[in-house]
Amino acid sequence: MDEHKIGVYVCHCGTNIAKMVDVEAVAETAGELPGVTVAKTYKYMCSNPGQEMIIEDIRENGLDRVVVSACSPRMHEPTFRKALQNAGTNPYFLEMANIREQCSWVHDDRSVATEKAKALMTAAVMRVAEHEPLERRSVDMCPNTLVLGGGIAGMTAALELADGDRRVFLVERNDHLGGNVARVDLTAPHLDSAADMLTDRLTRVVEHPNIEVLLDSELKGLSGFHGNFVADVTSSSALPDQNGGRQLDVGSVVVCTGYQEFDASRVTHFGYGKLPNVVTSFEFEKMLREGRIETKDGRIPQYVAIIHCVGSRSREFHAYCSRVCCMTALKYAHEVKSAIPTCYVSDVYVDMHAFGKGHEDFYRRSSEVKTLFLMYGKNESPVIRRADPKDDCEMLIDVNEKLSGETIEIPADMVILMVGMEARSDWEQVTHKVNISGDKDGWFIESHPKLDPVATTTDGIYIAGACQAPKDIPDSVAQARAAAARILAKTSSPTIEVDAVFAEVDEDRCSGCRICNELCPYSAIEFNADKARSEVISALCKACGACVAACPSGAIKARHFTDRQIFAEIEGVLA
Amino acid sequence: MTFEPKIVGFLCNWCSYTGADLAGTSRIQYSPNVRVIRVMCTARIDPTFVVKALQDGADGVLICGCHPGDCHYSEGNYKLMRRYPLLKRLLTAYGIDDARVQLEWVSASEGRRFGDVVDLMTQRIRELGPSRVSAALATDAAER
Fold first, then answer.
1. Cα distance from B40 to chain A (closest Cα, Å)?
2. Which of A28, A365, A512, B17 would suit a FRET pair with A38, their CA atoms being 20 to 30 Å apart?
3. What residues in A contact B6, CB-CB < 8 Å?
């Protein structure tokens, strides 16, 4: 091990690490470890000067191994690997010690955190000494893309890719495109028509020579890997001789499966389903699209109340904000007022979230159309009850008005519940099919919330629109275009480079027992009958290492996760 | 001095390591006793890793992977689940309390759960006391 020249770089990460970990002490300990010739700290190691420092040390001091003690490798491992590559050394001669996410951010005792940081750094130093140079693999990149879901996000991604001369299969479960946007009348804050917006896209999608729309269709399974997926799509409206199923070769997948609305009947005190004129926002949209705002018995309502945050921002249902309801509620106030100028509109809200471009202006204009705004506390939900026959309205709503501190009774002939967005009930099936994850609310998890918002942890699978989190049309469109841009870049050459981490069989040690053959989830291990040895097809291997641990002869090596490397790491954390 | 156990954690890259990172970004505070080693999948965890950790002085070993059905490699965690009882039997045969090794499922969104798992594991091992190896190592160090 002593023949190595290891450089250890301990990052302050501003104060993120330095506040809780004595970075100088970590560097000092590093300097005493065998093989370590350089040990430095720096404010931001990932910054250009930080990377330059490492590159310079590699070139000038002949470092052959680098340890960066900083954030999670999931964050900056690619950054520092690139730095090593730029310095002319093998990028796999890097190891990161995660002293931020798994140390400084989760502990509150500086000396204990520093000791742990030293242990993690030591493990990384001992591990990196065992690292081997690895070459990245090149695999074919199929330029076709599968887009799941024909809502605004899916159609946008499809068009963007098709305009970039890539073939797209747009799979939609329903018998029509448009998704939830097709259920909307006007859109906030500019009150332009959703239908107008959709029609042009719909026509282009349907007529585009590069887009094949598969309606009444679902993804049954996805196999393969980035650049080389095979999608198994079944269609309920397929001709009998087509057998209902198709195998599509695609290189990338964009998941745009959207959201479903919160079931308003879960909030019992609003009487949804019992009081006939308590309607959800989507039911009200339907009235707007049909051009008739009227009660169940065909009367024109004189009092309309709009209640915000139904299912959202609540301890009982969903803790998150659904983002679109506040502006949609204001839009309803406008639409009711313009259809029925004498109508009294009350808007019962928790907080008015007017965060988007033009939203504050829209809020101001809405308050000018004589809407009565009443604020209620998050956990003091209004109660709707039937009015007395002597009252001139159908229902009464009791609101603990927060700003005045008074209980106010407001009349209503119609109540619109602003139902929030929630993950589709079958979100888990989608995650399993395309091998991505959902968060605690069922929204799909992006690769990095800020820096990589449309990629996922599975290479080649992208997410866009409201399946990732509640969002409005502009954000969905932006994400869809971003996902398309990522794919256009990735498919700009016929091959892509993939990680050099995979398993390999040592022919001399393999006994040909074939235990590994059955174990591989990707059928990446084949038995070579001539040699009576098993062989790994590296392009198919995804480096899980199941075969490595199972091989009774110890003949399979997990590149970059070898026994020696992990043993060194174990010794290091316990040193 | 209270006994501070040294615990080696083997975390799968996709669910549990990401969950541990989320605990960090969420600033969830938990016991500092677990030192994490990342593997791509719990299926990579050779029983010898666990034995090696105990042999080198770990008081406990915590293995965290994706929840059953959620494995990034579809069924790697099931492979670990098959090995795990055998490993426990092996440890018992060696005279090691098999409670020193624990398997827990932590998804990428369960930062809070990761913190709880670490706290609980630390508490358990603290109650078990130092392992014989770590006690012997501590005596050696004291004598030196």
1. 5
2. B17
3. 573-574
In what helix (H) or strand (E) does residue B131 lie, and over which residues does it extend?
A: none
Q: Between the CA atoms of A175, A181, A185 and A190, what dihedral angle is there, to the nearest 10 degrees?
A: -160
- Give the nearest partner residue to B37 out of A74, A437, A570, using CB atoms: A570
Q: Is the confidence metric ipTM above 0.85 for this complex? A: yes
Structural domain spans, chain A: 6-135, 145-258+424-495, 264-420, 502-558
At residue A532, the 3 state secondary structure works out as coil
Nearest residue of A to residue B20 by CA position?
A102
* A104-132: pLDDT as tens digits: 999 999 999 999 999 999 999 999 999 99
Name the residue in chain A with its Cα closest to that of B5: A574
Which residues in chain A have Cβ-Cβ distances shorter than 8 Å to B18?
74, 437, 457
pTM score over 0.80: yes
Nearest to B21 among A74, A435, A558 (CB): A74
Chain B interface mutation, best of A448, A459, A566, A567, highest count of B Cβ atoms under 10 Å: A566
Gap between the Cα atoms of A334 and A331, Å rounded: 5
Q: Quote the mean pLDDT of chain A.
A: 94
The C-alpha atoms of residue B45 and residue A12 are separated, in whole angstroms, by: 32
Are the CB atoms for A309 and A421 separated by under 8 Å? no
Closest alpha carbon within chain B to A501: B40
The CATH number of domain A145-258+424-495, selected from 2.60.40.1930, 3.40.190.150, 3.50.50.60, 1.20.1300.10: 3.50.50.60
* Dist. CA A65–CA A476, nearest whole Å: 43
Distance, CA of A283 to CA of A274 (rounded, Å): 15
pLDDT tens column, A513-543: 999 999 998 888 999 999 999 999 887 888 9
A106 to chain B, closest Cα gap in Å: 4
E-assigned strands of A51-93? 65-70
Residue B53 one-letter amino acid: A
Q: How far apart are alpha carbons A415 and A279 in whole angstroms?
A: 6
Which helix (DSSP H) or strand (DSSP E) does residue A222 occupy?
Answer: strand A217-225
Per the CB < 8 Å rule, is B27 touching A102? no
